[in-house]
Amino acid sequence: MADKKLCEDNELVASCEDEEMMTYKKSSLNVVSFRIVREENDLEIPTKKSNSFKPDMAHQIFGESEMIFGYRQLSIGLYYLHNSAKCYVDVQFSDQIPESDLCKADDIMKALNPWLPENYRVERDDFKKDIREENHTTIFGEVIDTFEVENSNFKITICDMKNADFKEFHQRFETFIVWYIDGANFIDLEDSRWTIFYVYEEYSNPNTNKKYCSPVAFCTVYKFYLYPNSIRPRISQFFVLPTHQKRGIGTNLYSTVFKHLKALPDAEDITVEEPTPVFQKLRDFCDSLYIYRDLEENKINISTQNHKQINAYLRKHKICKRQAQRVFDILECLTTHKNGYREYVKFTESIKARIASEVDKESRGSKRLCNLERTGIMTEPIDKKASVNAEFNKYIDSLERPVSRLRSHLAKIEANK
What we know:
Elements: H1 2-22, E1 25-27, H2 28-31, E2 32-37, E3 52-53, H3 59-62, E4 67-69, E5 71-72, E6 75-81, E7 87-92, E8 95-96, H4 108-112, H5 124-133, E9 142-149, E10 152-158, H6 164-173, E11 194-204, E12 211-226, E13 230-240, H7 249-262, E14 271-272, H8 277-297, H9 307-316, H10 321-339, H11 341-363, H12 367-374, H13 384-415
Parallel strand pairs: 2-6, 13-14
Antiparallel strand pairs: 1-4, 2-3, 5-8, 6-7, 9-10, 10-11, 11-12, 12-13
Helix pairs in contact: 7-8, 8-10, 8-13, 9-10, 10-11, 10-13, 11-13
């Protein structure tokens, strides 16, 4: 009985110790917050709720678990000046775990340091001095487009990569991406093949009439050499501040970048580096709308053209082969929706047949599979039907979303005529 009681006591102690340790573990996504600062009072209470936001990811900073160990009531505030992107880091906690041979608190600043703007502040008074010295209306680059969203004016610029002040600014602003783009890396600004576009918001304080101009988005493009005398522009990074997402800013930025790259006489086609699902949806909508308008203007009926003609037409607009197929499918899907159920079924059947052919090609005559079979290693049989159905359902779903947005957009235009 005594042994049993001792065992229970030990389990209770271990349980309490585990619970105690858990109070020192924090999810970085919960304790890290960003705030855009225009004036000193933004340090205390945000003038707008939209000035503050949380990160989407932190595994590059704090490891795969994204956990921070060793602190109670931890908060990490990353304050960025609205125009210059100068930064202040404010780490607060109520208690730190005593250091021992068995446990040690994580070094937060060591983890953050590689991903923060150079010369970031850790003293509030130093940052307040930066606020007082901030130039609120600086814009880098040549303005190539303007647009209005929700009564706010925006300018899109193409930046001068030789401008040292711009490079310093971009190195500060691009530090946001590690928290929002998986596997993000900072680009080499000494490589002249990079082109960077920025979106600036013009804002006027209704109480003081003071004017502000703030960078809210950027896009980087790398111009790959294409033999013998062409280039292949590739969109690499595409970032919109969380405070400005879902307002059409990304759509306007992509459309402007696409038109600029399309106009380059030596550009063969425009590609994107590993597009995220969110970016692919934006790209599908913009490319499809652009081509739809051009087809309408030139009175071309997509349904009467064969794939070869359509692909040649899309390549003329410098849309790369894979994206050209998607744009064709989106517009064909839009057309068959208008023409009735039977036409839509015929369209989906053609898509399924194409996917079945692709799956068959991939599984038939694979050199690797043949080599394995020759050595006597049996491979798992491929369920082609299940594979085709899965790919088909996934692809049709990916088409329906831009089709729905395109249809809604065109309906609004028609209603406003």
